[in-house]
Write a structure and sequence with these properties.
476 residues, 20 strands, UDP-N-acetylmuramoyl-L-alanine:D-glutamate ligase, 2 domains, Adenosine kinase, small domain, 5-stranded mixed beta sheet, globular, 11-stranded mixed beta sheet, 17 helices
Length: 476
């Protein structure tokens, strides 16, 4: 079947997006926790990167060291080069405030925007019509409050345990928590030691200094008030664990902070036993924490979400190193599906979703409360909104949510789906997933949706959070 015919079939599948968006107003409550911060975003060219490297780096070998955190100023440039040359997104932590000051002075920013999975999810859920949305924020400075959308359904808790519109809350003693997001474009180039590197995919590098979210600080007023039985919610979206480390300081362990969050989750479960909890797994550099999250949260929630890099990282801590290497070598839909199955079996989580470039894949247990057809509709709405975010730069206004509605799915996504369909047909002797997006057998349901890609996205910040949250909430 030609791609032109497939695109027409998928255009028909995607026609449900406006109706699904309307249905999100029927969702009775959502909690988004835990990480909210301020993102300082800058789009940087390869030429500018070269200039800064020439100015600040004496030994270029530093740029290719095997690192995953920032302990000296040179590591900022190493992180940028790492993500630029590979076309990937990673977040590295800064522990020294002087290094953060250097970053701030050297790079500056183009704009400030809502950051942190918790904050991004809260804003997008509110603009999609979920009512109410309760957002946790470790710090609500005046600057932070101003980044919550000015919507009556977006709520938080002030320092007197009173629920208010989040934008109207200002805790005077709270400090701004700022993350630097350095974006770069596909096919841009940099030259290092007379060798030219071409960026294979538009992406970003995140350098973070955040003393509260580093510790997964949970605001006591929010935790107390939101645990009361008068608070209703159908969904809880969990995020913000990725900055934890095995040992935070002499008195605090990362595992203890995770355990504290689980105690709060247990309280919330008692108030609403039918609540669906989704855990968004981000780029967690500390392997101990990564493993602890998989062993202690993923098996206690209804759904988990990750991108291809995060999925491979999970393989590395569940003794699937050979498959991790194969996925690194050939990051395609078939290898990633194999990886999803391994994680699915290991965690026993009822539902898991991958958002890879051009294709979203969901695997779930038979009989899961969200049907495959509903899942596909939610994923298609997510793909539409994500494309609108990429194409317009913001989905903070309702008019932009369906900006991409009517656009065709990408051939990149169709090629990956075709590859996956052939694999499923060879292994299970049947597959109509290329046309329907759904494959079922006695062990699991599989849903795969080719996405709408924007050639030159205005922004990619918060894309995964937008995709995962809408995919599971937009399924009514």
């Amino acid at each position: 079947m030609s791609y032109n015919i497939l695109k027409k079939k998928w255009l028909k599948n995607y026609s449900s997006a406006p109706e699904q968006l309307q249905k999100m107003s029927d969702v009775k409550g959502l909690i988004s926790a835990f990480n909210t911060n301020i993102d300082a975003v800058i789009k940087i060219s390869g030429k500018k990167i070269q200039e800064l490297i020439s100015e600040h780096i004496l030994d270029s070998t530093i740029l290719f060291e095997n690192k995953n955190n920032i302990s000296k100023k040179e590591d900022i440039f190493a992180g940028i080069v790492h993500c630029f040359t590979k076309g990937i997104a990673e977040e590295w932590v800064i522990n020294d405030i002087e290094i953060f000051k250097f970053l701030d002075k050297t790079f500056g920013y183009d704009k400030l925007q809502q950051g942190g999975q918790g904050g991004i999810v809260a804003n997008i859920m509110a603009v999609c019509g979920v009512n109410p949305v309760y957002v946790h924020s470790a710090s609500i400075s005046k600057l932070q409050a101003g980044l919550f959308l000015d919507l009556p359904n977006l709520l938080s808790v002030d320092d007197k345990n009173i629920i208010k519109k989040a934008r109207n809350i200002v805790r005077k003693n709270d400090i701004p928590l700022i993350h630097y997001i350095i974006e770069f474009d596909k096919e841009d180039k940099i030259e290092i030691d007379k060798k030219i590197y071409t960026c294979p995919k538009s992406n970003r590098f995140i350098a973070t200094y955040d003393p509260l979210n580093f510790k997964l600080h949970i605001d006591s007023a929010f935790a107390e008030r939101i645990s009361k039985p008068d608070i209703n919610y159908e969904y809880i979206i969990l995020s913000g664990y990725q900055m934890l480390q095995k040992k935070i300081d002499n008195n605090t362990k990362g595992a203890d902070k995770i355990d504290d969050s689980l105690k709060l989750l247990e309280k919330l479960r008692k108030n609403s036993s039918e609540t669906i909890v989704h855990f968004e797994i981000a780029s967690t550099q500390d392997k101990f924490i990564r493993k602890y999250l998989i062993d202690n949260i993923a098996n206690k929630v209804e759904s988990i979400g990750y991108n291809e890099r995060e999925l491979i990282d999970i393989l590395e801590v569940i003794n699937e190193t050979d498959l991790a290497k194969e996925c690194n070598k050939n990051t395609n839909a078939v290898n990633l599906f194999k990886a999803m199955l391994k994680v699915f079996e290991y965690t026993n989580t009822p539902r898991a979703q991958l958002h890879m470039f051009g294709l979203y894949i969901t695997i779930q247990k038979k009989g899961f409360k969200i049907s495959p057809e509903q899942n596909r509709k939610g994923m298609q709405l997510a793909a539409t909104v994500a494309a609108g975010k990429a194409g317009t730069g913001t989905v903070n206004i309702k008019e932009n949510l369906l900006w991409a509605h009517g656009k065709q799915v990408s051939e990149t996504g169709l090629k990956e789906l075709e590859y996956l369909s052939k694999y499923l047909h060879n292994k299970f002797k049947k597959s109509s997933i290329l046309e329907t997006g759904i494959f079922q057998n006695k062990n699991f349901d599989l849903i795969a949706v080719p996405t709408i890609l924007i050639d030159k996205p205005i922004t990619l910040v918060g894309m995964g959070d937008t995709i995962s949250s809408i995919s599971i909430v937009g399924v009514k």
